[in-house]
Amino acid sequence: MVKLLPNSLLSCSQNRETERFGIGIGDEQAWVTNMASSSSSSSAQEKHDVFLSFRGEDTRFGFTKNLYHALRGKNIQTYMDDQKLESGHEISPQLMEAIKESKICIIVLSKNFASSTWCLNELVHILECKGNENVIPIFYDIDPSIVRKLSDIYGEAFVKHKQNFKDKKEKVEQWRRALENLANLCGYHSKNFGDEHELVNKIAKDILLKLPKYQLTNYGDLIGIEEPLKEIESLLSNGQMDVRIIGIWGMGGIGKTTLASIVFQRWSYSHFDGYCFLEDTPEEADNTNHLRYRLLFALLKDKTLLSMNTPDVGSTLIQNRLLSKKVFIVLDNLNGRSSKLIDLLEGYQLGIGSRIIVTSRDKQLLVTKNCQIYQLKGLYDHDALQLFRFHAFGSNSLATGYEALLESVAHYAKGNPLALKVLGSSLKYKSVEEWKSALDKLKTDPDPEIKKVLRISYDGLGDKSIQGIFLDIACFFNNQVPREEVESISNHATIGISVLIDKSLIISEWYRMLRMHDLLRQMARAIVCDESRDCGNRSRLWNNKDSCHVLERNTGTSAIEGILLDLSQLRKDVKVTRTAFSKMFNLRLLKLHLDKRFPPYNCSRYPSGECNFRVSLSDGVEPFVSDDLKYFQWDTYPLKYLPYFNPENLVQLIMRESQLELLWNEDQPLELVKLKKIDLSYSEHLMQIPNLSRAINLEVLNLQSCSSLVQLPSFFQNLGKLQFLHLQVCYNLEDGLENLPINVRELYLDRTAIKSLPESIWKLKYLERLDLSFCRNLRKIPEILCHMKFLVEIMLYGTEIEELPKSIDNLTRLKTLCLACNKIIKFLPNSLCKLLHLQELYLRECSSLEELPPLPRGLRKLDIGKCERLKSLPELPSSLDYLCPVECSSLEELPPLPRGLRKLNIGKCERLKSIAELPSSLFDLCAKECSSLEELPPLPHDLGTLNIVKCERLKSLPELPSSLNYLRANECLSIEELPPLPHCMVKLNIRKCERLKSIAELPSSLYCLFAEECSSLEELPPLPHDLGTLNIGKCERLKSLPELPSSLYDLCAEGCSSLEELPPLPHHLRQLNIGKCKRLKSLPELPSSLYDLCAEECSSLEELPPLPHSLHILNIGKWERLKSLPELPSSLKVLKANDCTSLEAISSWGYATAQKKFYEDPFFSFENCIKLDDNTLNNVIANHVHHQVSSAEDDTLYVYPGDEIPEWFSYQTGGQDSISIHLPPNWFKLGLRFAICFVYVVLNGYYDQLIEVEYEFNFKANTSNGGDELLYKHGGELTRFLGRIIDSDHVSIVTQPHNRRGFFWPISDGELLEVFGPNWSSICRNITEASFRVFHEDQNGVIMNIKKFGIHPLNNGFEEPNVDGDSTSKRGFGECSSDQPNGYQHNHDSHPHNISK
C-alpha cells in the first residue's frame, strides 16, 4: 500500500512538559504511515470523516459544539453523540459502530474527562480500533503533563477509580495506559491559541487538509493506482502558496484520465474556491478560443463577464476575478498544436495556491508552459495480472485451469490498463478453448477497441514521413533498437524520432536505445496489413510467411519498402526466384537475418545454434532496381558475389557467414558516401576487399573470422572516419597494417597471423583499444615514439612477446594492460611505474616471470595468479584494492598490504607460512589450500568473506569479526573447535572438518549450514529460526536432530547411519535427502510443499507416509522391506524404486491433465521389483505409461518387470530383427517422433558399468532408372542402463533417444546432407519406406539380450493397427500434405549424431 505524506503536520516535540501543540512541518511521517496501513485494513463502509469524543458536562454546549459546527461548515462529515447524559459505564453498540465507521477520532480532554468511566471506556475502544495514528487529542484547559502523569485532578479521579474497582485492577490499568498513550500523541493545546475561535478554525482547516490522506485506498478495479497517485500529489504540493502546472504524459490507454480524475475528486471540492474538469476533443484541436471559453465559464459561471473576453488580450475584470480565486483545473487529453496550452492561459493569472493538471500524449504540449511532467508508465506485472483477473473473473472468482492463459494475456497487454480491462471483459464467462482461440487471434488481429484508442496518436502525427518512421520501427524491430539503426533506414529520422518520443509512440532509454510498446507495434502492423490483402502490395513485410511467399512466388511490387526475414524461424528451405526483386523500385530495407547466432545476442566468439533451413539462389538473382536501398543484410548469403544494386544511398551492409569471395568486380571505387557500416564477419571465403576509398563516412568495418584474408589493402588509409575495425580471428591475416586509417579508435587483431607491428601503429593518435591477444607469431612491440593520449586498453593475452618496450611510459592514459598467459616474458620494464593512470594489470599465468618492477602508484587491480617463479612482490601502491597472487607456488611472503585493500586471494600459495597484518579495509580473504599456513593474523573488522578451505595445518581460528557473513572452512582437518560465530553470519561451510566434535551457538542470521562428513560431530546446537539449508550428510555419529526451523527448505542427512528418527518436518521443506540412513525406522508426516524426496537404501523402513501432491522426485531404491506404495501424486516426474524386491502393489497413480516441461527428463524405474502383482503391472503402471507417453513433451523412460510389449504399440517384431515402416510425404521436413519399447534381460554385468542400447534406421530409395534400391543408414544411442544383472525379463519404454539427437525431431539440411549426400532433397522425396531396429553390442563382458521391440508413432497421421492382421505387417502413415504437417511437432534443438551412410 502507498503511504501518503501530508504537507503540514502536527507537532510532536519530545519535551512534553513545554511542548506547543500546534502545527509543525515534517514531523508526522510515522503518523501517516501507520494511519495508511491501518486504514487499509479498516472497513470499506466508513461513513464519517470525524468522530468527536468528549466529556459532555464540560464541553457539550461550548467548545465541542463550536468545533462540530466548524467542521460541518467545511462539509466534513462529523459524528457527535447527542445524548446529554452518559448512562452506565459501558459505551453503547451504536457508539462502537460509529467509531469503527469514522476516519479520524478527535478526543477533547477536559478537566473532568478522567472522572468519567464512560469516556475512559470510549477512549480504550478508540485506541483498540484505530491505533495511535488517526487519533488526535485536544488538551482543552488541561496541561498534557497532567494527563500523562495522572497528577492533579486526573490523579484524584484515578484514586477514586482504584477504590471503586478493587476487583477490576486490570480495567483501571487499561485506562491509565490509554491516557498515557494519548498524552504522547500529536495534538492541540488550547493555551497556545489566542481565543477559542482561533483554535476551532485551526482544527477544522487542518482536518480538511488531512482528509484526502485518510481516504481509503480501495479504488475498486483501479489496481496499481496508489504509487502514481502518491507521486502526483507530491508534485502538486497542495498548501504551498504558488501556482503549479503538472503534466501527465503517456501513451493511449495507460490511465492518464483515471489518475487525473482521482486526484480531482480527492482535492477539488474541499480545498479550492473553484474547480473544473475539461476534456479536450479532436474537434477542438485547433480551436483554442472555444476551449478557453468553456474553461472560464466553468470557473466564473458568468456569461456576461465572459462576453468581455478577447482572443489576444485578457479582460481586466476577468483577471481580477481569477486572481481572487484559488482554483483546481484538469485539462484532459490536450491535443493539437504545441502552443495550445500557452494560448489557452494567455493573458490571465490564477490565484495563489491554484493547481492545473494537464494530461496529454504529446510531450511538446507540456514543455512549452514550463510545467512539471510526470510520465505515466504501464502497470507492474503483478498488478497487471490482478487487474486482468478482476475483469475476467470478478473479485472473488477462482481462475482454476486458466493460470497460464492469464499470464499470456497479461504479458500481451504489457501493463496497459485499457487493454487489460477490454480483454478481461471480452473473455469473461468464456471457456478455456475460447480463451486459446482469442489469444491466437490477438497475435495477428488486435482488439478493435484498443486499436481505436491507440490509433489516435498515429493519426495525430499528420506528417507522412514521421508516420513512416513509426511503421518502420514497428515492423522491422521487435525489441530495443539503437537509434542509429532506425536513422539508417528511414528518411528524416532524427527529427522524426524526437516527435515520436514526445507523442508517447516510442520510448527513449539508456544508451540511445528505442523501445515501442507491443500494443502500439501490433496496431502499426495492422495499419500496414490494411494497405492490401495481397502481401506483395504492402509497404513492409516482417512476417516470415509473407516474406517467403513474395520471394518464392515473385509477387513483389513497387509498394514494398522493406522485407524482414528471420532465418532462424524458417520451417522449410526458401528458393528465391531470380527476378524476386525486379519490381521492387522503392525497396529501402532488406534484412534476411540470423541475429541470434551473432553478438550481441550470442556472447561467444563463434556463431551458435543451428539453421535447419536456408535461403537459396539456385538460379542467381537479377539486379536490384531500387535506387533507395539503405539497409542491406543477408546472413549466410549463398553466392560468391554481391548482387548488383545502386549503393548510392546505402548506409549499412551486413552479410555475416556468407559464401562471398568478392563483393564486386568494379575496377573503379563505387560512390559510397552514405555508407557507415560494413559487417562481413565469418565469411570464410572472402579473399579480398574491394576499393572502398570513396566510403568516406564509413565508421564500422567488421571482418571478424574472414579467415581467407591475408592483407589489408592500401586504400584503408583513406577511410578517414573509420573508428571500429574488427579483424579478430582472421587467421591468415599477416600484412598491410601500415595501411590502417589514422582515426581508428578500436582495433581488434586478436588471433591473426601478424608477426610484427609497424611503428606507424603509434601514429593512430585517437586509438583507444588495441587487442593483440593470441597473436602467437608476434614477438615484439615496437618502441612508442609519441604520447598516446587516448589509448586506455591493450590486450596481449596469450601472446609470446618477449619484452615490452621501454618507452611504455608514453602510453600516458593507459588504464588496462593484460599480458596474461604469456609463457615467455621474464621481466617488465621499470618505466611501467610511470603509467600514472594504469588501474588494472593482468599477469596471470606468466609462468616465466621472475620479478615485478616498481608498480604505478594509481594501480587498483593486480592479478598475478599462477606466476610460478615469482618469489617476492615489490612495494604495493596504496591505491590497490584487489590483489590476486593465487597459485604463486614460489611465493614465501607478502609485503605490507595497502590500507585500502578490499580483496586478497592467496589460494594455493603452498610455501606461504604466515600472513602479515591485514588492512582494516579488507572485505574478502581467500587463503584456500595454503597447505603451509599454520595461523591467521587478527582479522579486520569489516571482513565479510573468509575462505580457508583445505588449510590442513591450521589448528585454530582467531576471533571472527562481527561483519563476517560467510565462512568457508571445509576440509580444515586440524581444526577441533570454532570460535564464537558472529551474529550476522549467513553461510557456514565446515564440511569434512573431521576433528570437529561440536558446534558452538549458531547465529540467528544463519541461512545455510554445510557440515557433511564431520565424522566426529555427535550433536547439533539449536538451529536458527531463519535457516534455509542444512546439510549434515555422512555425519555418522549423529543420532538425533534438534527441532527444525519453519524456514528450512532443504535438508540433507544422507549417510547419517546412526540417525534413528527425524523430528517433525517444517511446512516449507522442498528437498529431503535421507539416503542410506539405515537405522531410520519411520518417517514423519511429509509437508505439502515437498518437491524432492531421496530415501535410497533406507533398509529399515517398511512403509511410506502419504505423499504430498507437490512431489516431483521420489527415490526409494533398495527398500527391501517395502511391500506397497501409497497413492503416487500426478506431479511425480522421477520415481526410482529399483531393487524394492518385496514391493507388490501401488494403490493408485494419478496423472496430470496438462504436461509441463521439467528440468529433468521423466524417469520411472521398477527394475528388479519382481513381486509386483498383475493389477499394478497391467493397470496402474500400464495406464500411466500410456497416458504419459501420449501426452508428454519431455523425453520419458520407463523400466518395469515384464515380457510383453503393450498392445497399443502399432509396430512390433514377431521374430524379425527389424520393423518396416511406411513414411509420410515430406517426412524429412517434419521429423519422426516415436515411442520405442523393448524387452530385455541382462545376464552378466557390473553395477558401475553403463550398458548402451542403440537404434538404427535403414532408408530405401528407388533409383530413377529402375535399378537396384539404395540403402541409407542412420542411428545413434537410444538409452543407457547401469550394468547390473537382471535375470528376469524387463520392459523399457523410451519416447526419444537419450541424447536428444537424430531424426526424431525436425531435421537440418546438414544432417540430411551427411546421410543422403548432396542430392538429399530429391532422394528423400523418393523414400517412402524405412526399417527400424533396436540392438545392443556386447562389450566388456556384458551380456544383454533384447528379445523383442516395438515402435509407436507420437505424430498424428499414422493408420490405426490392423487388429485382424499380423502384428508384424507394415503399417503406413495416413495422408499428410506437405503444407500441413498434421500435428508433427517441431523442435529446433536437434543436432546430427552418429550418422553414417
What is the strand and helix layout of this fold?
Layout: E1 9-10, E2 23-24, H1 29-41, E3 48-53, H2 56-59, H3 63-73, E4 78-80, H4 93-100, E5 102-109, H5 117-130, E6 135-139, H6 144-149, H7 152-164, H8 169-183, E7 188-189, H9 196-214, H10 226-236, E8 244-249, H11 256-271, E9 274-279, H12 288-300, H13 303-306, H14 316-323, E10 327-332, H15 340-345, E11 355-360, H16 364-367, E12 372-375, H17 381-393, H18 403-413, H19 417-427, H20 432-442, H21 448-459, H22 464-476, E13 481-482, H23 483-487, H24 493-502, E14 507-509, E15 513-515, H25 518-529, E16 540-541, H26 544-553, E17 562-566, E18 574-575, E19 589-593, E20 615-616, E21 631-634, E22 652-654, E23 677-679, E24 700-702, E25 724-726, E26 746-748, E27 769-771, E28 793-795, E29 816-818, E30 840-842, E31 861-863, E32 882-884, E33 903-905, E34 924-926, E35 945-947, E36 966-968, E37 987-989, E38 1008-1010, E39 1029-1031, E40 1050-1052, E41 1071-1073, E42 1092-1094, E43 1113-1115, E44 1124-1125, E45 1134-1136, E46 1145-1146, E47 1163-1165, H27 1174-1191, E48 1197-1201, E49 1211-1212, E50 1219-1222, H28 1227-1230, E51 1234-1244, E52 1250-1261, ...
Parallel strand pairs: 3-4, 3-5, 5-6, 6-7, 8-11, 8-12, 9-10, 10-11, 16-17, 17-19, 18-20, 19-21, 21-22, 22-23, 23-24, 24-25, 25-26, 26-27, 27-28, 28-29, 29-30, 30-31, 31-32, 32-33, 33-34, 34-35, 35-36, 36-37, 37-38, 38-39, 39-40, 40-41, 41-42, 42-43, 43-45, 44-46, 45-47, 47-48
Antiparallel strand pairs: 1-2, 13-15, 14-15, 48-54, 49-56, 50-55, 51-54, 51-56, 52-53, 52-55
